[in-house]
């Protein structure tokens, strides 16, 4: 990535209206979903994807156990892809069995036997990470469990300046018509990382600062996420342990870094 591209500067041929969507002039930027990741992927030097319930939390748990995680868009092709790369494919939470104990559930991943390589599909965080991998940028899986560690690592690597900005992406969920549904859990998870990046030399964009303000206005983050639509949905489906694991704020020092399409420890 060139310095001009990383700084968000625009050539004479670029539309200045389009340029503002990249939040130029800030060392730390914030956006939502696949489209936001695509926009910031053109101008940032590193991306952080946050999908608290549950992709990036599951990645943190799995990588912390020594597993290499292959993000893959949610589709029937995950099994075939896993066979090609010599991995096992995670199944849906409802399909977990003694023979197939790996799923998107962080609680299931804690209980399951260790495996060297895991293909972990999901319609949001995994799809965003798989697409972001194609940019060649460093892509980090962030969540509440590793928020402090992720922020510290990024700053230590020299990111967070206007020449090497960081893009923090809240994955969100999907409505039945496949449009983005912003999720409280991902807003607060992203903001926890932004909190650790608040001292970055390039400063926060307005979008990042407002996200951080949301975190500072919530007196009980755990209660907010438990009471959110996504938290209540998982609890109603019998996966309240997944929510509990996701709320273990700063319990992990793992920084899962996507290299060559595979998450492993930074």
Automatic annotation (TrEMBL):
Top-rank lineage group of the source organism: Bacteria
Keyword annotations of the record: Hydrolase
GO molecular function, one term: magnesium ion binding
Pfam families associated with the record: 2-ph_phosp (PF04029)
SUPFAM superfamilies per UniProt: ComB-like
InterPro entries registered for this protein in UniProt: ComB-like, ComB-like_sf
Annotated protein name in UniProt: Probable 2-phosphosulfolactate phosphatase
């Amino acid at each position: 990535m060139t310095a001009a591209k990383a700084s968000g500067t625009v050539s004479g041929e670029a539309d200045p209206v389009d340029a503002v969507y990249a939040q130029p002039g800030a060392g730390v930027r914030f956006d939502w979903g696949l489209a936001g990741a695509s926009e910031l992927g053109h101008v940032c030097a590193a991306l952080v994807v946050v999908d608290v319930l549950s992709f990036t939390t599951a990645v943190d748990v799995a990588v912390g156990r020594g597993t290499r995680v292959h993000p893959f868009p949610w589709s029937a092709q995950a099994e075939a892809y896993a066979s090609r790369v010599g991995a096992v494919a995670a199944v849906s939470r409802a399909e977990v069995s003694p023979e197939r104990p790996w799923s998107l559930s962080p609680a299931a991943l804690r209980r399951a036997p260790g495996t060297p390589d895991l293909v972990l599909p999901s319609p949001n965080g995994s799809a965003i990470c798989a697409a972001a991998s194609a940019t060649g940028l460093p892509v980090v899986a962030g969540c509440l469990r590793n928020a402090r560690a992720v922020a510290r690592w990024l700053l230590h690597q020299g990111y967070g300046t206007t020449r090497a900005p960081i893009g923090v992406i809240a994955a969100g969920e999907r409505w039945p018509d496949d449009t983005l549904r912003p999720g409280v859990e991902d807003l607060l998870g992203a903001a926890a990382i932004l909190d650790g990046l608040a001292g970055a030399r390039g400063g926060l964009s307005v979008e990042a600062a407002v996200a951080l303000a949301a975190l500072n206005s919530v007196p009980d983050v755990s209660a907010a996420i438990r009471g959110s639509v996504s938290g209540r949905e998982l609890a109603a489906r019998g996966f309240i342990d997944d929510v509990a694991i996701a709320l273990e704020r700063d319990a992990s020092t793992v920084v899962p870094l996507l290299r060559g399409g595979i998450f492993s420890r930074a």
